[in-house]
Amino acid sequence: MSLRINDIAPDFTAESTEGTIRFHEWIGDSYAIIFSHPRDFTPVCTTEFGAVAQLAPEFEARNTKVLGVSVDSVDDHRKWKADIAKVAGVPANFAIIDDRDLTVAKAYDMLPAEYYLPTEGRTPADSATVRTVFIIGPDKKVRLTMTYPMSVGRNFAEILRALDAVRRTDGVPLATPANWVPGQDVIVALSLDDRAAEEKFGPLDIKLPYLRYAKDPA
Predict the structure, then answer these.
(1) In this structure, what DSSP letter does residue 126 have?
(2) pLDDT per residue over 99-124, tens digit each?
(3) Nearest Cα to Cα of residue 54 among 94, 96, 5
(4) In degrees, to the nearest 5, what angle opens at C-alpha 55 toward C-alphas 50 and 56?
(5) How far is CA 183 from its chain centroid?
(6) C-alpha dihedral over 68, 94, 181, 212, to 10 degrees?
(7) Residues involved in catalysis
(8) Which helix (H) or strand (E) holds 161?
(9) What is the pLDDT of residue 2?
(10) How far apart are CA 150 and CA 124, in angstroms?
(11) Is 121 in a helix, a strand, or coil?
C-alpha cells in the first residue's frame, strides 16, 4: 500500500554522499523533501538535480533538508555531482543516498507497476524509480506527495510553492487557495466562526459564507 498523507514516513539507514544517514534522526526538527530519480548520468535527472542545487538557499531559508534517492552507488553519485554542477552553475550540496537494494524505493512505493510483474521479460527500466516527491514534517509525518512519470521532469518552483503552503498551514486553521503564493490571502477554516476568525487573523474578506479570506499571517 502506498504512503498516505499523515502516515509516519518510513525510517531507514542508508549510505549517502554525506555519510551514513539515519533518516528520522537526520530530519531532526526540520522539514524534509525526498525526491527519487531513475538513474545517475541521465539527462532529465541531471537538469532536475541542477534545479535543486540552484534552490539550495531557498530550502535552507525554509528550514528544509533535501535528500535525493538513486539506485546507483555513492561513488557514482559523487562523480555525477560534477556534471550537475556544470549544468547548474553551482555545487550540488545536498545528500544523495545509495539505494541499490531498493530498500527506500520499496518502502516509499517509488517503483512503477512493471516492477511488480513476473520477472520473466522484465528489463532494468522496469525497476527504475519513477520521479516521486515527499514533503515530510518535523513530526516525521508525510505532508504531501507528488509522482511524475520518468519522461516528465519535475517543476521545482511548484515543489517550493507547495512547501510554502504546507508550512503556512501546518497546525493552524488556514488553507491556501488555488495558485496561492506567499503574501497572497489565505482561506480561513470553517472550524472558526467569523468572530473567532477575525480575532485571530484580523478583518475577513467574505466572498461566500464558506469562502472567507484573511491576510497572509506570515
Answers:
(1) G
(2) 988 899 889 988 865 554 444 444 44
(3) 94
(4) 100
(5) 22
(6) 70
(7) 45
(8) helix 156-169
(9) 79
(10) 13
(11) coil
**Could you say which DSSP state residue 115 is in?**
G
What cell does 119 get?
Answer: 520477472
CB 98 within 8 A of CB 77: yes
| Cα three-residue angle 187-190-194, rounded to 5 degrees | 85
The count of residues in the chain is 218
Calpha distance 34→67 (Å, rounded): 5
- Whether residue 32 contacts residue 59, with contact meaning beta carbons closer than 8 Å, is answered with no
- Under 8 Å CB-to-CB from 52, ≥6 apart: which residues? 35, 59, 66, 68, 92, 94, 156
Cα separation of 133 and 148, whole Å?
A: 9
CA–CA distances in Å: residue 199 to residues 34, 177, 212: 38, 21, 14
Among the listed residues 102, 119, 100, 120, the one whose alpha carbon sits nearest the alpha carbon of residue 111? 102
- Burial, 37: exposed, middle or buried (Cβ in 10 Å; 0-12, 13-18, 19+)? buried
Helix residue spans in 43-155 (DSSP H):
43-54, 56-61, 74-88, 103-107
| Cα 9 from Cα 142, distance rounded (Å) | 6
Helices (H) and strands (E) in the chain, counts: 7, 11
pLDDT, tens digit, for every residue of 162-184?
Answer: 999 999 999 999 999 999 999 99
